[in-house]
Amino acid sequence: MLNEQELTEEDKAERLAQLTDLIEMVRPIIQQDGGDLVLLSADVCAGVVELQLQGACSSCAVSSTTLQAGVERILKDRLDWVTEVSGGVDEDMDWQESASMGRGAYVPKW
Fold it and tell me: How far is CA 72 from CA 2, 4, 18, 21, 84, in A?
């Protein structure tokens, strides 16, 4: 694996493009349940990616699982340079508005 000194600007741009493409592939799955996935930052040299779940994910009990067991696993499996994925949910959204957006299996059907 290349270290920071060995990465050219082209290499860095390619890594960022790969990451962005992969996130765009995953987003529709999350959007189906009223959520969204946003890239906050990416250190393509160190392999550290920071993401944020938004929308219905803000009130979802399994959002941390979605981020860690779902999105992180996909990124690490497909991009060998990704070493760490961190992030969370958008804390600014009203929980009732967030809950009304969700359609996932975790939402009780009364």
Answer: 21, 22, 15, 15, 8
